[in-house]
Amino acid sequence: DVKVTQSSRYLVKRTGEKVFLECVQDMDHENMFWYRQDPGLGLRLIYFSYDVKMKEKGDIPEGYSVSREKKERFSLILESASTNQTSMYLCASRATGGVSEAFFGQGTRLTVV
Amino acid sequence: GDSVTQMEGPVTLSEEACLTINCTYTATGYPSLFWYVQYPGEGLQLLLKATKADDKGSNKGFEATYRKETTSFHLEKGSVQVSDSAVYFCALRINSGNTPLVFGKGTRLSVIA
Predict the structure, then answer these.
(1) Tell me: the pLDDT tens digits for A6-20?
(2) Chain B: residue nearest A105 by CA?
(3) How far is B63 from chain A, CA to nearest CA, in Å?
(4) A41, A54 contact by CB (below 8 A)
(5) CB-based contact (8 Å) between A50 and chain B?
(6) Interchain CB distance below 8 Å, B43 and A106
(7) Cβ-based burial of A15 (10 A; exposed 0-12, middle 13-18, buried ≥19)
(8) Could A31 and B32 be called an inter-chain contact, meaning their C-beta atoms sit closer than 8 Å?
(9) What is the mean pLDDT of residues A72-96?
(10) Stretch B6-33: mean pLDDT, rounded?
């Protein structure tokens, strides 16, 4: 079974903390993505990466950074967590070429208090 | 920019009722179109897709037809079940390079017995 695994299902952090959300895929996909999901706003793209050490800003990159040191792992970093970053975070991966399907992890529900 | 508009929910139906969730899109290039489904507590999974005009995607009794003339990709099912209760997302991706998926805001469907 193909898999995208996010390290935590639920996370509670304090305002100002540095937060790492980890995502690992086992499909040798070139492309990986981080979205946040909020009620009434749907999924919004934070960052994506199409290769190791490459990254592109999505629609809402402010307050976030990413790291992709290995092909299978894509990390989302909240440099200084704030309450407005309380959300569901979804990681996805997809192969390059054709109309390939994106596979999603189960999500990390982050609460910043 | 590229965007997807889908009907707002929530939608509540009785078992065996007909379902239509409207989806229209705006795209700068030639997109592929997708419907993703999110069951409670899970990540997104691909439900169906269509890659060119007049294509019909189908899966699990759901269907959607790529209508270029009306820029639409409405999701339909003739007889819904309680197990179809989920959030449904319409999405597009421009068929060029490593472009990410662009999602609509999602439509929550509740089916009652």
Answers:
(1) 999 999 999 999 999
(2) B43
(3) 17
(4) no
(5) yes
(6) yes
(7) exposed
(8) no
(9) 96
(10) 94
Strands (E), chain A: 4-6, 10-13, 19-25, 31-38, 42-49, 56-57, 64-70, 73-78, 87-94, 103-104, 108-112
CA distance A40 to chain B (A): 6
A45-77 pLDDT, tens digit each: 999 999 999 999 999 999 999 999 999 999 999
CB contact under 8 A, B46 and A41: no
Backbone angles phi, psi at A53, to 5 degrees: 65, 5
Note every long-range contact of A37-42, with CB atoms under 8 Å and residues 24 or more positions apart, other chains counting: A37/A87, A37/A88, A37/A89, A37/A90, A37/A107, A38/A87, A38/A88, A40/B105, A41/B105, A42/B89, A42/B103, A42/B104, A42/B105, A42/B106
Question: Peptide bond preceding B10: is omega within 30 degrees of 0, i.e. cis?
Answer: yes
Please count the CA atoms within 13 angstroms of the CA of A31 that sit on its side-chain side.
18
Report the distance separating Cα A103 and Cα B45, nearest Å. 7
**Structure tokens belonging to residue B37:** 């489904």
Query: Mean pLDDT across the stretch B88-94?
Result: 94
* 3 state DSSP class of A63: coil
Using a CB–CB cut-off of 8 Å, the residues of B that contact A are 32, 36, 41-46, 49, 51, 89, 93, 95, 98, 100-106
Residue located via tokens 């707002």: B8
Contact residues on chain A for B3, CB-CB shorter than 8 A:
none
